[in-house]
Amino acid sequence: MTLSLLVFGSTGQVGVELRRLGGPDLAIESLDRAAADLADPEACAARVARTGADVVVNAAAYTAVDRAEGDEAAATVVNGAAPGAMARAAAARGIPFLHVSTDYVFDGGGARPWRETDPVAPLGAYGRSKLEGERRVAEAGGPHAVLRTAWVHAAHGSNFVRTMLRLGAERDALRIVDDQRGGPTAAADVAAALVAIARAFAEGRGVSGVFHYAGAPTVSWREFAEAIFERAHWLAPPRIEPIPSEAYPTPAPRPRNSALDCGRIGAAYGLRQPDWRCSLEAIMKELGEARDGVGA
Ligand SMILES: NC(=O)C1=CN([C@@H]2O[C@H](COP(=O)(O)OP(=O)(O)OC[C@H]3O[C@@H](n4cnc5c(N)ncnc54)[C@H](OP(=O)(O)O)[C@@H]3O)[C@@H](O)[C@H]2O)C=CC1
Ligand SMILES: Cc1cn([C@H]2C[C@H](O)[C@@H](COP(=O)(O)OP(=O)(O)O[C@H]3O[C@@H](C)C(=O)[C@@H](O)[C@H]3O)O2)c(=O)[nH]c1=O
Ligand SMILES: [Mg+2]
């Protein structure tokens, strides 16, 4: 059976990877900012209200963590009010609404991976705005899934992998935070999980709720940076100096422990934590081939 998705956020990391999954079994209509601006929640809701798609997926968000500190009202419209309005429109049609959220809803305390039942306490405006979205999506009352993921990266877009490769080419040494730990997650793996959940809903096997889904093993940003440079064969790797968070001040504090326990999504949907090292191989291959002009 062909599954049809209406996707908001076609130009983002997850949006691009969702489009790549389209094919005979998966029809994807995706909307960019010009087609659906989440700064206008009612316009987005109206778009949902007239869709013929089986499932709506929101991959759009205000993701500039530091910028959100000085722009919280706008971030909260995009990350809170808009998903809420879209989810209510989906609920009115009886179609499932899939939404993506973040590890930054947690305060980063403790050392064990966070469960969906653990208390949330965001440290900054981005996390607060995303939490608002989670709550409004649940309150809409329709079939829904909120996928909390972390440290999303891809061969395209704005992410830590591309930042490291850019800085690594410019400098001999990098100072990287070593006391924030999490699960790097490839956008392609997030997209595949969203499609699996959408298919489950279409087949009557959907389970509503919040689900954690992040890559394994858990590492620090410093360890992730080293793994990136190990695979960037075209670069002379920079020296990496491990630093504490205090040595890298940012407008928004980041959680120290943002590891996510992904047991619930395994039980509900049979989805296992992806090994980010395998996914990173594919991303580095894509970046290497782009450099070599393969496929250009
Ligand atoms: N990046 C990460 O590390 C993580 C992301 N997430 C969540 O995953 C989801 C996908 O993130 P990711 O793919 O990384 O996002 P990106 O930062 O790569 O892209 C954001 C997307 O949202 C769109 N967008 C932003 N503002 C608006 C707006 N006002 N109207 C319409 N579209 C808008 C952007 O469009 P444009 O190109 O026009 O700017 C772009 O398509 C988000 O919900 C995010 O919160 C969760 C954990 C980690
Ligand atoms: C560039 C750089 C960053 N860092 C640190 C800062 C920060 O703690 C960490 C990662 O930097 P970033 O700016 O990529 O991180 P950030 O934008 O906070 O990434 C987050 O984005 C949002 C959207 C999410 O939802 C989160 O899951 C998470 O992926 O690395 C260094 O220590 N040295 C450096 O040279
Ligand atoms: Mg960032």
From TrEMBL:
CDD domains referenced in this protein's UniProt entry, alphabetically: dTDP_HR_like_SDR_e
Cofactor-binding details, from the entry: Binds 1 Mg(2+) ion per monomer.
Record bears the keyword Zinc-finger: no
Reactions catalysed according to its record: dTDP-beta-L-rhamnose + NADP(+) = dTDP-4-dehydro-beta-L-rhamnose + NADPH + H(+)
One example of a Gene Ontology biological process annotation: dTDP-rhamnose biosynthetic process
Keywords of the record: NADP, Oxidoreductase
Names of required cofactors: Mg(2+)
Domain spans labelled RmlD-like substrate binding: 5-287
EC numbers on record: 1.1.1.133
GO terms of molecular function: dTDP-4-dehydrorhamnose reductase activity
Pathway(s) the chain acts in: Carbohydrate biosynthesis; dTDP-L-rhamnose biosynthesis
The keyword NADP belongs to this UniProt entry's keyword annotation: yes
Family stated for the protein in its record: Belongs to the dTDP-4-dehydrorhamnose reductase family.
Role of this protein: Catalyzes the reduction of dTDP-6-deoxy-L-lyxo-4-hexulose to yield dTDP-L-rhamnose.
Protein name: dTDP-4-dehydrorhamnose reductase
